[in-house]
Amino acid sequence: MRKIILGMLSVLAVVAGLYLGKESLVPKQDRNAEKTVHFYNWGDYIDPDLLKQFEEETGYHVVYDTFDSNEAMMTKIEQGGTDYDLVVPSDYMLNNMIKHHLLLPLDHEKLPNFKYMDNRLLNLDFDLGNKYSVPYFWGTLGILYDTRRVSPEEITSWKDLWNPKWKNSLLVIDGAREMLGVSLQSLGYSVNEVDDTKLEEASQQLKALMPNIQALITDEIKMYMIQGQAPLAVTFSGEAAMAMEKAPYLAYFLPKEGSNIWFDNLAIPKRHII
Asked: Where does the record say this protein resides (predicted)?
């Protein structure tokens, strides 16, 4: 799905680990089955040619499924009955999955390319020591706008999105954590606020935004913005970059209050037997 590519080393690190330690990642009852890797990822989030290259070099077939929100992904994993070898949770959802015992710890000895990872992306608070995850992509959340319909002076702050002028004009991502953060920052609070009173205030603030929201979507935002179906969107930096590449009249910025930096990570669901 979307977002700024930091680099493909993170993918290759885990892919190499799957190859080197392939027997340990296949459930015992399936050891004699077709060699298959089941990858559950965001849409538009890996080059199909890279998957083909992996298949050619390892002899493994990749079954690639996609999701459009962290919550949908976690629900499916939590319900069980899936065959996924790799999933891609964002920072906060990775932490939730660790707390719910849904992930296997990684064997770093089977990840020879891990040493090439940027140290700035490692040992973050949602997975200290990268016990359960390898960084995949990172980026920001901001506002994508159509310069033919919106001037930069009209939108400088998150709170500007609540202007009645933008009634039925806003596309927003289908992400509870992200939109709660937008609401908190529009009120002058931290994106990581935990005070119940302030969280309730932010919840009510989001309800007040509803008249301005045209659609609550994720992957379709870039397509709709390219088509000119809305003048404004709250979206991820990578989605914005792909949209701007095809539509030079689109622009992306971070509101003056700032934005959260997100990290998406590769992890292994706990159904596997090591």
From this structure: Periplasm
**The listed CATH number (3.40.190.10, 3.30.479.30, 1.10.8.60, 3.10.180.10) that belongs to domain 36-137+263-267:** 3.40.190.10
Rounded to an integer, what distance in angstroms lies between the CA atom of residue 66 and that of residue 44? Answer: 9
What is the DSSP secondary structure assignment for residue 31, as one 8-state letter?
Answer: T
Give the tens place of pLDDT for each residue, 239-248: 999 999 999 9
Q: Compute how many other C-beta atoms are within 10 angstroms of the C-beta atom of residue 169.
A: 19
Q: Tell me: the pLDDT tens digits for 37-47?
A: 999 999 888 98
Question: Can you name the CATH fold of 139-261?
Answer: D-Maltodextrin-Binding Protein; domain 2 (3.40.190)
- First-to-last alpha carbon distance for the chain, in angstroms, is 30
**Domain ranges for the chain:** 36-137+263-267, 139-261
Alpha helices for the chain (secondary structure H)? 9-20, 22-25, 48-58, 70-79, 91-99, 176-186, 196-209, 221-226, 237-246
